From TrEMBL:
<dbReference type="InterPro" id="IPR028589">
    <property type="entry name" value="SPB1-like"/>
</dbReference>
<dbReference type="InterPro" id="IPR029063">
    <property type="entry name" value="SAM-dependent_MTases_sf"/>
</dbReference>
<feature type="region of interest" description="Disordered">
    <location>
        <begin position="445"/>
        <end position="576"/>
    </location>
</feature>
<keyword id="KW-0489">Methyltransferase</keyword>
<feature type="region of interest" description="Disordered">
    <location>
        <begin position="699"/>
        <end position="730"/>
    </location>
</feature>
<dbReference type="Pfam" id="PF01728">
    <property type="entry name" value="FtsJ"/>
</dbReference>
<feature type="binding site">
    <location>
        <position position="92"/>
    </location>
    <ligand>
        <name>S-adenosyl-L-methionine</name>
    </ligand>
</feature>
<dbReference type="GO" id="GO:0016435">
    <property type="term" value="F:rRNA (guanine) methyltransferase activity"/>
</dbReference>
<dbReference type="InterPro" id="IPR015507">
    <property type="entry name" value="rRNA-MeTfrase_E"/>
</dbReference>
<dbReference type="GO" id="GO:0000466">
    <property type="term" value="P:maturation of 5.8S rRNA from tricistronic rRNA transcript (SSU-rRNA, 5.8S rRNA, LSU-rRNA)"/>
</dbReference>
<feature type="compositionally biased region" description="Acidic residues">
    <location>
        <begin position="617"/>
        <end position="642"/>
    </location>
</feature>
<feature type="compositionally biased region" description="Acidic residues">
    <location>
        <begin position="533"/>
        <end position="558"/>
    </location>
</feature>
<dbReference type="GO" id="GO:0000463">
    <property type="term" value="P:maturation of LSU-rRNA from tricistronic rRNA transcript (SSU-rRNA, 5.8S rRNA, LSU-rRNA)"/>
</dbReference>
<feature type="binding site">
    <location>
        <position position="56"/>
    </location>
    <ligand>
        <name>S-adenosyl-L-methionine</name>
    </ligand>
</feature>
<feature type="region of interest" description="Disordered">
    <location>
        <begin position="795"/>
        <end position="857"/>
    </location>
</feature>
<feature type="domain" description="Ribosomal RNA methyltransferase FtsJ">
    <location>
        <begin position="24"/>
        <end position="200"/>
    </location>
</feature>
<keyword id="KW-0539">Nucleus</keyword>
Length: 857
């Protein structure tokens, strides 16, 4: 074959070198090897004909692979150097002479396999090459039908072209199984492909036209191009699977716009052309020049004409209308529709400016395309839009679900915090600005708040929000929520299994929740019962009012107004009660004494109090509570066993001892965090006042509406969405020192063990004393003997420490000299035989015991 020199180097690929190495005459050998590997047609073949075999690499492969004593015949236009086990001759496979020669070689044999790798030696135009090659394929197929045994195989190379489908159809008529493939060694740039046809049907009579290129490749008349579809449904692009028209080299077609005005078939032009141009040729097209100047020929029309392939329905209609108007101007004769069904309605459409004009364009001048029914088109369009919308919605929903799922997983893995998924970090002017009472007062909202209007407002807002939410929430959303909740519950369970701390935390939280449900986070002791939870929520709105409210008489009245009368008597909400414990309210009637509210405070934030209400330190405490300052629970009088109370360990503490919150009239406060220490320091040094602290407490963290929020969300809120308190270096250092001191103390168990030991020693000494006294009082021993006996007793007690020594057990390894039963040689006293089996058994037993222990827990 003719190979261009400049491409020759690029063609020397691995198969070329492999062929050289293996001694094949051409790299084509690998194509046959790979085909045979896939379809195994050579192994069983006893007789093979290779058509177009030069230089002979396929013959080499066939000779290698086929059984010994097989008959292999090769033919080519070019001479083939002799190949062992193969008969070769020169000839043209399209001739009868070649056929006769093959017959001569085969004699009575039939071929099991005919292979064909022919390529015409022309190398001119590709189309010509392809056609000659396909002709060659037909010639080889003709020979195959003559020489193949029934069920035989025909393997051929085919150049992909518009005729290859016809060839395939013919193969399928003659063979049971036809497969098309391209082996890896066949270059991608090459249009060649291989057909492996197996199971030759060996028909007795074969229509000669089957194998006649004139009939086989005869042009079937193409189905009419549906130009109407192209124009009315331009969005639906159809792929050119059947290939492009022969001779249509540029794939770009244009025509003068005047031609479009004059044509009888405007739809065909719009469907087939790429551009309508207004270019003036040398000969000067007057019609075109006039058309260009027409007022109807707007810039938009020209733009549309410039690229017809990108136009949509609207633009095509515009062009059709423009055409009609132009025709009207030029005085072209308007014909009646050729479609008789259109009847009288199909008169000229000129002059109408709506869609009918465009549709009319198809009807005039005898255009034969059927107009599309307007209503149908509209319906189709609406349907199409609907489909698109549903599709887009579905896609969005799917994406949303996927995103949510991902976020949950990421949160479970601790890769993100809720703030990353849209929880706002704070008010625009800082966390503290949102609820600053001063600003509230300036806006005269304070009054409304104290009158409880805000509450109503919030309620109604909430209601509307809720109803909106209800409308928005669809079933899918609920299902997703449920899924997320269950996933989160599973995750929590797993975590608790792994981590005892997490379990304890949850238990604590549940306990707290119980309390909260009961009474908004206040303790039992105060006696304020759950019946005023409603009131408490009201009170939430006004709790911790700032100084201005405290001192303003009118405001105080307002505050009182807010409470229902009976509540004032004995059922103040926890927070409100604590608020009214301040000195400033001492003289006010109708407020409860502080004893109960102290206990409430205790529950509220983990401060343990068991004493009459505090006076000056009260407010500071309240603030301190939130920051981790705890009233110590230790019973200092108990030197032996001492509880170190930490918030983490609350669950494990017995909690039955009443803590002593005061020492010598002062609160016994234990500061356990650096934040609390910083705050305490700031309070003590007067850097902040209690009023400021109260004011600061009104922030986005104070009140949260947690109704309906998923558990995972609340958990994460609790973890991350809390106020960051400043920590000073000194405070951090002080807490560190304190913790070091705490850690230096022995733990409870050690102290208990020590105490037990001391007790045992005391008991032993008591015994010893009694014995010694008995000895001393006896008369049967001399004084010297008595002294010796007592000394011996003392020494023994000292040595053993009260423990009786157990005899040591000797461990003897089984096996070797210690095989069999009986006492091993040279071993005295107690002994134990061990072997590897025993070791394993003991370990297994231990494991099991531990497991059971874990389960019991
Ligand atoms: C790609 S080569 C075949 C390579 C061969 N399969 C091998 O493995 O060595 C194509 C061959 O087809 C041969 N050929 C083309 N037209 C032919 C014809 N009409 N009769 C016989 N051989 C022909 C060419 O001479 C050329 O050697």
């Amino acid at each position: 074959m003719a190979i261009q020199k400049k491409h020759a180097k690029a063609r020397l690929d691995k198969y070329y070198y492999l062929a050289k190495e293996k001694g094949y005459r051409a790299r084509a050998a690998f194509k046959l090897i790979q085909l045979n590997k896939k379809f195994s047609f050579l192994q069983q073949a006893k007789c093979l004909i290779d058509l177009c075999a030069a230089p002979g690499s396929w013959l080499q492969v066939a000779a290698e692979t086929m059984p010994q004593k097989s008959l292999i015949v090769g033919v080519d236009l070019s001479p083939i150097k002799p190949i062992p086990k193969a008969i070769t001759f020169q000839g043209d496979i399209t001739t009868d002479k070649c056929r006769a020669t093959i017959r001569g070689h085969l004699k009575t044999w039939k071929a099991d396999c005919v292979i064909h790798d022919g390529a015409p030696n022309v190398g001119t135009a590709w189309v010509q090459d392809a056609f000659s090659q396909n002709e060659l394929v037909l010639s080889s197929l003709k020979l195959a039908t003559e020489f193949l045994a029934p069920n035989g195989a025909f393997v051929t190379k085919v150049f992909r072209s518009k005729d290859s489908a016809k060839l395939e159809w013919i193969f399928k008529q003659l063979f049971n199984r036809v497969e098309q493939t391209k082996p890896p060694s066949s270059r991608n740039v090459s249009a060649e492909t291989f057909y492996v046809c197996r199971g030759f049907k060996a028909p007795k009579h074969l229509d000669s036209r089957f194998l006649d290129p004139k009939y086989a490749f005869a042009e079937v008349e193409d189905a009419a191009v549906n130009n109407e579809a192209k124009v009315f449904n331009p969005e639906k692009k159809k792929r050119k699977r059947e290939g492009y028209d022969e001779g249509d080299w540029t794939q770009f077609h244009e025509a003068p716009a005047s031609e479009f005005i004059q044509t009888q078939d405007p739809i065909k032009m719009l469907g087939s052309l790429n551009r309508l141009h207004f270019r003036q040729e040398d000969n000067g097209d007057i019609a075109l020049a006039a058309l260009d100047k027409l007022p109807e020929t707007s810039e938009e029309v020209k733009e549309c004409c410039a690229d017809l392939k990108v136009l949509g329905r609207k633009e095509f209609k515009l062009l059709l209308r423009w055409r009609l108007k132009a025709r009207n101007r030029f005085g072209f004769r308007q014909k009646k529709s050729a479609n008789p069904a259109a009847g009288s309605n199909a008169t000229t459409a000129v002059g109408t400016a709506d869609d009918a004009a465009a549709e009319g364009a198809e009807r005039d001048e005898g255009v034969t395309v059927e107009p599309m029914d307007d209503e149908m088109k509209l319906q189709e369009e609406v349907q199409h839009m609907k489909d698109l919308q549903t599709k887009a919605k579905r896609k969005e929903r799917r994406k949303d679900n996927e995103r949510k799922q991902k976020e949950t997983t990421r949160m479970q893995m601790g890769m993100m915090v809720p703030s990353e998924i849209g929880i706002e970090a704070g008010a625009p002017l800082g966390d503290d600005t949102t609820f600053r009472l001063k600003d509230v007062d300036k806006a005269d909202i304070g009054r409304q708040i104290t009158r409880g209007r805000m509450h109503t407002l919030v309620e109604s807002e909430k209601k509307t929000d809720d109803s909106e939410d209800e409308v928005e929430s669809d079933e899918e959303g609920d299902a997703l929520e449920e899924q997320l909740d269950s996933m989160y519950a599973q995750y929590q369970e797993k975590r608790e299994d792994r981590d005892a701390k997490a379990k304890a935390k949850r238990a604590r939280k549940e306990a707290n929740n119980d309390h909260e449900d009961e009474f908004e986070g206040f303790g039992e002791k105060g006696g304020n019962k759950a019946e005023d939870t409603d009131a408490s929520s009201d009170a939430d709105l006004i709790e911790d009012e700032d100084d201005e409210l405290d001192t303003d008489e009118e405001d105080v009245e307002l505050l009182n107004e807010l409470r229902p009368k009976e509540e004032k008597k004995g059922a103040l909400s926890g927070r409100a009660a604590s608020f009214f414990q301040q000195d400033i309210f001492k003289d006010l009637d109708g407020l409860d004494d502080g004893a109960e509210s102290e206990a409430e405070k205790e529950q509220d934030s983990g401060v343990d109090v068991d004493s009459p209400p505090l006076k000056d330190a009260e407010d500071d405490e309240e603030e301190a509570e939130e920051d981790g300052i705890e009233l110590a629970e230790e019973d200092e009088s108990d030197d032996e066993i001492e509880d170190v109370h930490r918030s983490d360990e609350e669950d494990w503490a017995s909690g039955d001892e009443a803590p002593d919150a005061h020492e010598e009239g002062r609160p016994n406060i234990d500061i356990i965090t650096a934040e609390a220490m910083t705050l305490a320091h700031a309070l003590a040094s007067g850097k902040v006042t209690k009023q400021q602290l109260e004011d600061d407490n009104f922030s986005k963290f104070s009140h949260r509406d947690t109704d309906g929020l998923p558990e995972w969300f609340l958990d994460d809120e609790g973890k991350h969405s809390k106020r960051q308190r400043p920590v000073s270096a000194e405070a951090a250092k002080a807490i560190k020192e304190k913790l070091r001191a705490l850690n230096a103390r022995p733990i409870k168990k050690v102290r208990e063990a020590k105490a037990r030991k001391t007790m045992r020693t005391a008991r032993r000494l008591e015994k010893l004393k009694k014995k010694s006294e008995g000895l001393a009082e006896g008369d049967d021993l001399s004084e010297k003997d008595k002294a010796n006996s007592i000394a011996k007793l003392m020494a023994k007690a000292k040595k053993s420490g009260g423990k009786s020594k157990r005899p040591a057990v000797k461990v003897v390894k089984a096996g070797g000299a210690n095989k069999g039963s009986g006492r091993p040689r040279g071993v005295k006293g107690k002994y134990k035989m061990v072997d590897s089996r025993l070791k394993k058994d003991v370990r297994a037993e231990k494991r099991l015991a531990e497991k059971m222990k874990g389960k019991k827990r």
